[in-house]
């Protein structure tokens, strides 16, 4: 009778704790809205500094690592793998099974209890820990590769931008020189001091200078797009 009473009290306590925990847990579904990503991407700006501030390479690298989706995904996978490796080192807990059986004997209710203590030792534990550690190391390497890829792309885009700026500066200077030369030859031909073919050649060189400026502007736009 004493055992039955204690069993009943323990059962009620376990049921009460289960109901309490169930009542505290609340899950709200939050589906991913893919249509919001393009708008969020278009509104991204480097607004951490004033408009006239100079962005250094370190500043751009920090901003790119913070906002790059591939880096964020690799970082999340690395954190998950490290947490899984830590959780693997926690030994599985023992289990307690309580049973109750009804019969037609003079004592109709028969109660029993059983326990299970898992032996987390030997090769099984070592294999599990090694697999978890290997997954964590692989995730860390993937994270490093993602960071290096972003850094390399940023360095290449900055170099292309500087090269495009220099090329555009030289192309505009050459354009200005050939513009002056073409206008001067126009005046000389109009005054009868020079032949018409010289003006045509100067105009052809000026057209090439215009084309070079346009190519430099396009290259700079491509560098800006890659930098973005």
What does this structure look like?
Helix content is 71%, strand content 7%. It is mostly helical and 228 residues long. The protein has a two-stranded antiparallel ribbon. Helix 3 packs across helix 5 (122-190), helix 4 (69-88) runs antiparallel to helix 5 (122-190) and helix 5 (122-190) packs antiparallel against helix 6 (196-227). The longest helix has 69 residues, at 122-190. The termini are far apart.
Task: Write a concise keyword list for the protein shown above.
228 residues, disordered N terminus, mainly alpha, two-stranded antiparallel sheet, Outer membrane efflux proteins (OEP), single chain
How would the blueprint of this fold be written?
Layout (H helix, E strand, L loop, with lengths): L1 H23 L11 H7 L14 H11 L1 H20 L6 E8 L6 E8 L5 H69 L5 H32 L1
Antiparallel strand pairs: 1-2
Helix pairs in contact: 3-5, 4-5, 5-6
The radius of gyration is 37 Å
The low-confidence parts are: 1-11, 17-25
Task: Please tell me the CATH architecture by its name.
Answer: Up-down Bundle
Shape designation? rod-shaped
Helix-strand category: mainly alpha
* Overall pLDDT level: 77
What's the level 1 CATH class? Mainly Alpha
How many individual helices?
6
H/E topology pattern: HHHHEEHH
Query: Largest beta sheet, briefly?
Result: 2 strands, antiparallel
Strand segment count:
2
CATH superfamily: Outer membrane efflux proteins (OEP)
